[in-house]
Amino acid sequence: MNLFKKNLGIREKSFNFARTLRNETSTYKERMNMKIRIRMITYCALLIMSVVSAKAQNDVGTYHGSDIYTAGAGAEYRNKFNHLDVAITTGTTGIGAELAMPASDMVQIRAGFAVMPSFKKSMNFRVGLKNDPEKDKNGNKIVTKFDRMSEVFKQATGYQIDRNIKMYGRPTYYNAKVLVDVFPFPNKKWFVTAGFYYGNEQIAKAYNAYEDMSSLVAVGIYNHVHDNVVAGEPIVTTTVGGLEYTIKFDPYYEDDAAIIKRFEQYGRMGVHLGDFADGTPYYSYPNEEAMMEVKVKANRFKPYLGFGYGSEIPKTDKLYNFAFECGFMTWGGTPKIITHDGVDLAKEVHGIRGDVGSYVRFFKGFKVFPVLNLRISRRIF
Fold first, then answer.
1. What range defines the domain where residue 243 resides?
2. Which residues of the chain have pLDDT under 50?
């Protein structure tokens, strides 16, 4: 047993190292993602500025106020690529920046970038064993197989397996965009918009709380012991003084045989998220880093269609404008909701329970992404 606990200590140190490495890797990835976002904004600005420079020599007249909205017949060339607006945006696509310029007296071109700020939303799930109800037929709470095995496991290893595990979900999406506004009415305030967004594939993710990782470590250790006991393999193998020692349950001994039988009956510990189409229960187990993760993915390229209303902000000498915009991005139908073991919860698993099920149903309901944004812009020249 001392050798078994010594091996557990080594596993715990390895887990701490893996967690530290994971945190450093995540920080590096976040820095690289931020650099990529800054570069994309810069490229958009340079692209538009180059177009402005190329067209400036052909421009005649000077833009005043909102000429793009009031120009009449014969103003097509006077209002083409002759000024630049910069704007900040906020809404369902996140917080972003845009550059805009008129392409004619009825058309405006916009390019920009938006990122959703990071925030967390908690959810909970429960660890359990297969075919292990927590209540009897009358709805009364009973002592479960999980309760018995977790108590035995605590006595043997000192690890407490908490049945309740907290998970955090947060958005992770960002997009560059190129849009074309058309002003079809005489007042030039209502507009329709078409274009596209292009961003990252992963739009959200969920992961277990770090304070619950000790419970998931314990679940991982239990499953490791279970698998080796059922397979007849040693639980621990070590070498001391040139001699090899193993800890193994021998089915020829009555006490060991009883333990083996109990492991076979109880099965592995995991999270029963739902069932496959054929009725087979789907259990999710912690990965090698004692983590449980889910990633929500959609298409990178997202065509967009919408409409909006814009006007000058009073008492700003026609330098500032606002606009409301709504529409939708098509991102390839139902997003994929992929667990760390490769199962798509949106398509392969049914009857998902609890908080996790609520979030899965939420994402499955969005075949397209709704866009509702507010834009505040200022004339640069």
1. 2-379
2. 1-15, 17-18, 20-21, 24-25, 27-28, 45-46, 48-78
Helix (H) or strand (E) holding 186: none
Residue 211 DSSP one-character state: G
Distance (Å, rounded) from C-alpha 344 to C-alpha 90?
A: 31
3-class secondary structure for 33-66? HHHHHHHHHHHHHHHHHHHHHHHHCCCCCCCCCC
Largest CA distance in the chain: 100
pLDDT (tens digit per residue) in 157-169: 777 788 888 899 9
Q: What is the pLDDT of residues 72-102, one digit of tens each?
A: 333 333 357 778 999 999 999 999 999 999 9
Q: How far apart are CA 265 and CA 148, in angstroms?
A: 13
CA–CA gap between residue 178 and residue 199 (Å, rounded): 12
Q: How many domains does one find in the chain? A: 1
Residue 375 contacts residue 323 (beta carbons within 8 Å): yes
* Cα gap 13→8, rounded to integer Å: 9
pLDDT of residue 134: 83
Count of H helices and E strands in the chain? 6, 19
Residues β-bridged to residue 177: 112, 197
Tell me what pLDDT residue 365 has.
86
Tell me if 226 sits within 8 A of 262, measured CB to CB.
no
- pTM for the structure as a whole: 0.72
Structure tokens at 240: 């001391």
Q: Which pLDDT score, from 0 to 100, does residue 7 have?
A: 44
Of the candidates 269, 25, 244, 277, the one whose C-alpha atom is nearest the C-alpha of residue 163 is 269
End-to-end Cα separation, the chain, in angstroms: 78
